[in-house]
Amino acid sequence: MFVALTLAILAAACKNEKAAAPPAPTAAQGPEIVKDLDARLAKLPLTTIDYDRSLLDEYETKVLQKLIEAAKVIDDIYWVQVAGENPAIKAELEKAAAASPEHAKALALFVMNHGRWDRLAEDEPFVAPLGEAGKKPQGAGFYPTDMTKEEFEAWIAANPKDKDAFQGTFTVIERDGKGLKAVPFSEAYKAKLEEAATKLLEAAAMTKNASLKSFLEKRAAAFLSNDYYESDFAWMDLDSPIEVVIGPYEVYEDGIFNYKASFEAFVCVVDKGESDKLKIYEKHLPDMERALPIADEHKNPNRGGESPIKVVQEVFTAGDARNGVQTSAFNLPNDERVREAKGSKKVMLKNVMEAKFKQSGEPIAKRTLDPSQVSLINFDAYFNFVLFHELSHGLGPGIIKGPDGKKIENRLLLKELYSYIEECKADVVGVWAVQYALDKGLIKEFNKEQLHATTAGMAFRSIRFGIDEAHGRGTAVQWNWYRENGAIVPGADGTFKIEMAKMDAAVKSLATELLMIEATGDYARAKALLDKYGVKNAEIDEVNKKLEDIPTDITPVFVAAGEK
What we know:
Elements lengths: L1 H15 L20 H6 L3 E4 L8 H25 L3 H12 L3 H13 L3 E2 L5 E2 L23 H10 L4 H5 L3 E6 L2 E6 H4 L1 H17 L3 H16 L3 H8 L5 E7 L14 E8 L1 H6 L1 H4 L2 H7 L17 E11 L9 E4 L3 H7 L2 E5 H19 L10 H15 L5 E3 L5 E3 H5 L3 H22 L8 H10 L1 H5 L6 H15 L3 E3 L5 E3 L1 H21 L2 H11 L4 H9 L8 E4 L6
Parallel strand pairs: 1-15, 8-10
Antiparallel strand pairs: 2-3, 4-5, 6-7, 7-8, 9-10, 11-12, 13-14
Helix pairs in contact: 1-5, 3-9, 4-5, 9-10, 10-11, 16-20, 17-19, 17-20, 19-20, 19-22, 19-23, 22-24
């Protein structure tokens, strides 16, 4: 596998490299690369991820391996979704890495980021062309690189019949002789999707679990038809020791409109004991929706009542799930039609969460918080915050009344700002929801002070992702809002104290603002919030400097996939 080979090359390069700084590579040795690769790689240290083998029997383990094979095919699709140039640059770096330790490091960073742009440095290019000349196309590989936002919108205005296809989640935009055209994923990535579908059908034939078989067969059909609706329903009904997500989901890579979905895969094993502990939360979600801090007319009591929560051990990821910063949990599907009818599923990646908390989260919180509050940092508080972040993606407005009075998904009105607003909303409403659960006595493992100390103390773990990244900018909004409202106060020693008496009100007021932006689809209001609060300032930069020696996140090395 390409990732395993890259990790081996990187290990050899680091082992054989002399202490002295290497000379800058010449053009003959390979493409021009930046000189601070060691520092960049140190932000995402290799971290072993494995699972408890006792959770699966012999037959299920074989199915798991077949799903890993399918996930690797999905990874190939994501490479070209990020940038059409990726395969050629990857080949060039592989060739140079064989003779150059520095290019081996560049190759490893290239794999971590699925491209030559550093996702932790606001997409700064680290492989030539460097600087402004090598800037990442805003629309990634979903649109012609020379297409502007204005050209896209003008085409729809002149050709209204193309609107649905152009704004569709599962199409790419290409040029033809007449202008622009929308091409379904099933055609754009036909060969790879046929290969992935074949592997899913092979896994379906191997499993004895009826619900897993149904999902895999329906998802294989979706790869060829470009219609994921029925297979999303089947995924919601999945009741299997294996939890698998495979297909196009998140829209973050599309920096122009947040319309286009990236392919990804999660192959996981369910921890049934841990999952059963969380079932109590599922039945309280309608109550949380009714209690949201907005007017009743904007609430969404009809959103699907089903909201299964699974705690899993991650076995392998691919595509959008594997680039840069690793996710701790996810809440899918994103299709609002499915959410309206059936709800959504929350999946907690507990082994990944534990690794991230130990590697960066806890050290950052300890260094950020006032010494008197460090003892409040708590993994259970972090775990439940992430859980309720995912639950909160399913709370609040989704399909709203548009300016013309017709129903429309709010993401279409908020455009490229949607991801920032939605991730910020999930964080803030997530904290609000944990407060709700604490007040109702649903949670007893930690208290409100531990919640606020842990979530605020770990804020810079996300801000360090960069404010071009949805989670990072969303966290910057929270930090600056709470600072303005006196809920976080700086100390003379450079640490920050959480004013517990003010934090509840600050959380509630920001939750209301974010929910109302989504309830109205108000683009101007969203932009005003992000322009004022979703920014770095001297204080944030100073804190980030103090955290430079702490890893930003992890780079998983999956034992079950033969990467170690």
